[in-house]
Structures are given as C-alpha cells and as structure tokens.
Amino acid sequence: MKVALVRPNYQTYLITPPLGLGYISSYLKKEGHEVIIVDGLNRNLTNSEIVKLVRDCQIVGVNILTDYYLQAKDLARRLKAEGKIVVLGGVHPSVMPKESIEECNADFIVVGEGEETMDELVKAIENKKSTKHIKGLYSRNNFSNFKPREPIQNLDSLPFPDWKSIDPRKYQKAPHGAIVKNFPVGPITSTRGCPYECTFCASPKFWCRKLRYRSPENVVDEIEYLIKHFGVKEIHFEDDNLTLNRGHIESICKLILKRNINIPWATPNGIRADKVDEPLLRLMKKAGCYFVVFGVESGNQEILNRIKKHETLKDVERAVRLAKKIGFVTQGFFIFGLPGETEETIKKTIEFAKSIPLDRAQFLLFDLLPGSELWFQHKDEVKRDYSKRCFRDSIWIPDTITEEKLKYWQSRAFREFFFRPRQIISFIRYFKISQFKHVFNRLRAFRII
Questions:
Q1: With 80 as the cut, is the pLDDT of residue 256 above it?
Q2: Chain mean position to CA 279
Q3: Which residue of 36, 106, 347, 435 is 20 to 30 Å from 284, comparing CA positions?
C-alpha cells in the first residue's frame, strides 16, 4: 500500500525541507512501506496538482500548522473526495483534533510524534485490522477511546530523515534566518522537546515539557552524510534548546573539530541567553558556528515574567555582548502584543533592541497559537480567523493597546532598527542576488516596504 506525505502550498517567506515528514518517511521505508513526499510549498503546487501527484497512493498524510490550516483543510477534503484515506498530523490537529477531523473530513489524526503511530496505522490498514488499539491515534469512528503514546526515548533508533525525498539542493533559497553564508543549507535537530513553560508557545503541550537527545555521534554523522551525499555547505540547528545541556552541545562541537568538519553553522530557531557563557560560545565559534539567535521576546522585564520566560534582560544583554565580542552575527526575536503590552513597553523593547549589539532583529505580532497556555486562557474570547497570518496579523489583543498601534509600531520597529549603518552593512555582506525575491517578500510581509 503506497503512502504519500504532503505539505500544502501557502504564502510564506520561509521554505525549508520538512524534517517531520522526512523522519516519518524514512521510518516507514525502514519498515518496508512505499512512501513519497510531495512538498507543495517548495514546488509551488496547487492543491489540484498535489491530488494528481498522489493518485497512485491509498493513504495520504497531510501535515498541518495553524498558519496554513485553510490550505490543508481544502487539500484534505479534495483527497477524501478522491477516495483516499486521509491522515492529519502536526501541532494544530494534535491540539484541536475534533475540529480538525470534522472540518477536514479526515479519517485519522496522529497526535505528537508520528513515526511509530503512522507505521502501526499503515500496517493495520494493509492487513485489514482494527485501529482501535493504536496509541497516539484519533479515528473518525473511534474518537472517545484515545490513548496517548509515550515519546520515543532513543532518538538514535530513528533513521535520518528521508533526505533523498527532501533534497536540500532542490529547495528555494528562503531559509530560516533569511540571509546565510552558503547554499545548500541542511536543517537538522539534535533534540526533541522543551522543558520550559513560555505561555505564548505550543511546544510545552505538544512535547509534554520533556527534552530528549540524539547522541552527539549520531548528530555529527548526519552532518557528514549531508555534506557527502547532498553537497550541503551550511548547517542550521533547528532545536528549541540546543544549548540547554552544556555537555550535549560541547560534545557536538568537539566531534566536529575532531573529525575536521569545516562547515559554517547557525542556530536560527534561537538559543536561551541564560544558557551560554564565554567558554561555550568560543567553542561553538571554533567549531564553525557563525550566527546565533536569541529569543528575547520583550524589552520589558514585567512582560517577560508574565509569559514565564524565566530569563532577565541582563541575561540577554550579557549573552549578546559576549557573542558579538567573539565575532558572531547576532539576531533577536521580539514579540509585540503580549499580555500587558502598551505603547511604552513597545518603545522600551525597540530601544533595548537598538542598545545591544544585534545585527538583525525580528519583530513579530503575538499570535494566540493553539496549544499554548495563553490560547487555553483566551480562546473563548476570539473566533479564530484562519485567513490571518501567524505572527503577522493580530488574533488576540490585550486591552492595553489597539491593533492599529501594534501594526504601526511593528513597522516602525523594523525601520528604526534596520535603517542604521551597521545593520545595512551586515545585510549587504550576506545578501545574494538569487535571494532577492524571498527577501523582498519578507520585507513586504512585515510592512518594512
């Protein structure tokens, strides 16, 4: 029985190989299943074109994030109309299973990690057996007997993602982090999960606040594999907490050095400022890291306390200054519209971003992400409009500020930050003509131009 794993097309400035689908595909292939991946986003496919490409597949898994729920829903319904067995996966259906399975007219929802659950589901369908016993699975006909699945403890037992099906050389030049040193870029994760409780993030719910590690040897083996077989010239660690366990990242760096792997790498998904110091940053730099991103969120300590960031502005300033002194390109993530936000707190955030040696900054609008603590607190106050874009349009707004003010200050923040000599020079240094379209779309998406 042939399986297709699909990501629908949608409007975004970020296009990278879908690691989740890659892992599920390689796991299913290891278990003897025939699998194809259709990345509608990278190939700029319409849903009609995707349906045609999977016509020979009996089971189709559709990855869904809130940002493209409408596109995924349309695709799922089209697939169901063609007689496919439709399986949904990803953060959105995992935390909103009943709405997702009904609105998408799907057959199953895989909750959380998909490798083992998807394998058991495909085998049950192939052998015409009941799916009631499968943990981590919602069924349209058996919704009330859901049993959660324990997370995979030995991540080294998983094969590398199906890189042949998500070949980095075939991806558009729209990577996480926007401007990079070299293409092609290979995104990898060395961990799964996050033990923190940031109230704006869905990760605590999705990963149950547990952090699991691949062995450093397994991680560095994958880096070498990507270099040798796919000509990858830069690595992006997409971990939520790459530096949380000091021994883990130190061992990865030392192995890279021991094996004489000469490749630049970055942490575009962000690392915590309170989990780095000068010796660690110097080791990372020596091992090839050139670009580090910090999740700052706000320049107001009271807001950081409210969202349970468990980090101080002094931590952030210290880490950024250290990173810049050592020679890293630095970036900070900021969010406008968190609980307690006012025009004054936004002004403080902008001034804070400009006062520390950041080369780049991302100013996002708060999004009430399904599965986050703030979503559970405020979901009944708003009716979600899925045509609004995550982190670009306001979904829920605190009563201390207006939507118009948030959009005004977001645009102003980008202009104030980037229209300065050092930021312009840093941008030009890494800008490539081949990225023009994607960089232009990013500038337009955030109302900079």
A1: yes
A2: 28
A3: 435
